Amino acid sequence: MSTVRIKGTYAHLDALLTGIERFKQAGITGYTVLSPVPRHEILDIIYEGRPSPVRWWTLTGALAGLTIGLLLPSLTHAQWPMINPGGKPVVSLPPFFIIMFECTILFGGLFTLAGMIMHAGLPGFFMDKSLQDPRYSDDKFGIVFAGAPEQDVERITTVLEKSGAVEVTTGDDAIYEVPNA
Amino acid sequence: MEAEASIVRPSDYAQADRDILRVLFKPSAIYIVAVLLTATGCVYGLWSWWQQFTWGMGVDGMNQASFWGVYIVTFVFWIGIGHAGTLISAILFLVRSRWRTGVYRASEAMTVFAVLTAALFPVIHLGRVWQLYWFFPYPNQRSLWVNFKSPLMWDVFAISTYFTISVVFFYCGLLPDMAIVRDHSRGMVRRVYNLLCLGWRGTNRQWRHYMAAYGFFAAFATPLVLSVHSVVSWDFATANLAGWHSTIFPPYFVAGAIYSGCAMVITLLLPMTYIFGWKEYVNMWHFESLAKMCLLTSGILTYSYGMENFIAWYSQNPAEQAIFWWRATGPLAWAFYLAVFCNVITPLFLYIRKIRQNPVTLFIISLIINVGMWMERFNIVVSSTAHSLDPNMWRMYTPSAIEIGILIGSASWFLLQFLLFIKVMPGVAISEVKEMTPAPLKGSLEAS
After folding, report:
1. 3-state secondary structure of A145
2. B contacts of A11 (beta carbons < 8 Å)
3. Interhelix angle for B151-183 vs A93-119, to 10°?
4. Edge to edge, what strands does the sheet with A167-170 contain?
5. Distance spanning both ends of chain A, measured CA to CA
6. Cα–Cα distance, A78 to A89 (Å, whole number)
7. B205 to A54, A124, B25, B95: CA distances (angstroms)
């Protein structure tokens, strides 16, 4: 089945939201919304309040860090039980709490970063060219179909135009060529 | 609120891009002079360090009693400077404070560069820098690991975690803005920024996970604001040395760190705002908020100064009483009184609105606070070791020219990093400024 690029560019947020809403009502999927700012209205319509799975990475990292922060000092000190500074117990939890705390934060943060990179599809160097449009980091919004089924082209362009897109392009016209890039 | 209302918001998203990106890449004459001056300071610092390599630690003023001199004082100073950045970027993000937007990027950059500068000092103090790897937790040839019960090892963990999380938080905040720089550039510069921003495009998927992760980074960074300087303070507080062995040290150090950090943000941002013409985005409302933070934390510091002296008297511990008496009347009394003047008396002027809202007076006060906070650490670190429990070990400490050279080099290095950053990355967070800008709305849509 051959596919076509379709791109609708919006100058106004409310028009963009209308466009997304109408695609949802029509049961049309496979589009990407581009925005220069994070707008909760956009995310609320698309994801309907479902939280990002990044939180599970955070939890896993924090628990892994906590465990490492406990095991690393405990096991290494237990390996040399005759070294006992200040008469403290060999495995002495109060000073190890600090290592546990720091490792929890460190691993939690690093896992969160890894989760974000993975779920956000970064690095995004090889995204479809229709998504690589500098206007969407400046002041415009976009709804982009990188590969819409050919038979849906008319339906999609109609929704884009009627929802208030200031420009609708298809095929190779949907690729924005940056001058002297 | 009156000042807040006076902020001129960009009329649209594109204007925010234009205004903030305008200062990138094109150095003015003042900028070039500043870079040359700071680079010269760095060379002087490197030369001083080279002298220490060549002749050994004997070129410093430290001795058997005063084993922690300017290096550890400056280490604590720079770690403290970083705190305001994390406070502004993380805590103010979580509480949705509106004045954060204009100043947080510069504050975060300041945090990263301050920690990078601070990290040099344990290495310099080590003397034999080629044995730097001894700091890190790894087993030696007898499988003997480092002592995790030592506060110095807690410090290694605290500072490396703080640095890592600060860099991650800083980098993530920069991703959308680096994409904006890319989209306004051409050729090789464009390709470099595309690599740096990991090909960011602002898709719904990217924003969704970015926003979730950013919140978690803020939540992780928040306890670090309190923990890092608490751990640094334990380097002192766990030692059985009069003047150091105190339970008030963690909150006292944290308040001091935020105090000096906010002052440093004022010192760096105030001139930049005028030089770069960013008054639409950073104005007196932001600086007044920072001044109020200084005022609050100086109150906590004043209380701590008073309380540690009171406890020395009330405890009836002769060693404690002796050291606090010596700090106020001994040969280092100038450092004590200078710290009190800068940290207790000077910030009181910030109660006067006219002084707080005047850029010149505010800038001067911020400089005085920076000096005062360095003197406070000098007073704590040096006096307790120079005048410790055993009178036979009383040795005066005077910083040598080499130590002062390295101190100048560190300040120059910090400023140079900041100056270079401000010309290659947006100094005000563009995507967050856009969030504050009313979204473009069409209003009534055509009926379909």
Report:
1. strand
2. 440, 442
3. 10
4. A32-34, A141-149, A3-10, A167-170
5. 33
6. 10
7. 12, 11, 31, 25
Q: What is the DSSP letter of B89?
A: I
List Cα–Cα distances, B184 to A133, A137, B230, in angstroms: 11, 10, 43
Interface predicted TM-score (ipTM) of this complex, two decimals: 0.93
Contact B373, B256 (CB under 8 A): yes
A45 touches chain B (CB under 8 A): no
Closest by CA position to A69, among listed A96, A34, A32, A39 = A96
pTM of the full structure: 0.90
Following CA atoms A86, A89, A90, A92 in sequence, which dihedral angle do they give, to the nearest 10 degrees? -100
| Bridge partners, A32 (sequence order) | A144
Helix (H/G/I), strand (E/B), else coil: A164: coil
Q: Are A5 and A148 in contact (CB under 8 A)?
A: yes
For chain A, which residues make up each domain, given as ranges? 3-51+126-174, 54-119
What is the three-class DSSP state of A33? strand
Give the separation between CA B259 and CA A7, rounded to whole angstroms. Answer: 51
Compute the distance between CA of residue B51 and CA of residue B124 in angstroms, rounded to an integer.
12
**Which phi and psi angles does A10 have, rounded to 5°?**
-120, 145
Q: Which residues on A lie below 8 Å from B168 (Cβ)?
A: 109-110, 113
The residue written with tokens 């994409």 in the block is B179
Q: What angle do CA B153, B155, B156 make, to 5 degrees?
A: 65
Instruction: Give the three-state DSSP class for A168.
Output: strand
- Shortest CA gap B383–chain A (Å): 26
Judge whether B325 and B333 are in contact, CB under 8 Å: no
Which amino acid would we find at residue B107?
Answer: S
Q: How many CA atoms lie within 13 A of A133 on its CB side?
A: 27
Alpha-carbon distance of B40 to B288, in angstroms, equals 33
Is residue A36 within 8 A of residue B431, CB to CB? The reply is: yes
Residues constituting chain B: 448
CA distance B345 to chain A (A): 36
Query: Is the Cβ–Cβ distance between B308 and B320 less than 8 Å?
Result: no
Contact assignment for A54 to B446 by CB distance below 8 Å: no
Burial (CB count within 10 angstroms: exposed 0-12, middle 13-18, buried 19+), residue B138: exposed
Substitution target in B180, B186, B204 with the highest count of A β-carbons within 10 Å is: B204
Tokens of B379: 């007073």
Fold entry, domain A3-51+126-174: Alpha-Beta Plaits (3.30.70)
Contact B128, B169 (CB under 8 A): no
- For each of chain B's 448 residues, which pLDDT tens digit applies? 444 544 545 667 888 888 888 888 788 888 899 999 999 999 999 999 999 989 988 998 888 888 888 999 999 999 999 888 888 888 888 888 887 888 888 889 999 999 999 999 989 998 888 888 877 777 776 777 888 888 989 999 999 999 999 999 999 999 999 999 999 888 899 999 999 999 999 999 999 999 999 999 999 999 998 899 999 999 999 998 999 999 999 999 999 999 999 999 999 989 888 888 777 788 888 899 999 999 999 999 999 999 999 999 999 999 999 999 999 999 999 999 999 999 999 999 999 999 999 999 999 999 999 999 999 999 999 999 998 888 888 888 999 999 999 999 999 999 999 999 999 999 888 888 888 888 888 764 443 3
Beta bridge partner(s), residue A9: A142, A167
Domain boundaries, chain B: 2-137+145-247+260-286+399-431
Select from B161, B163, B70 the least CA-distant residue to B116. B163
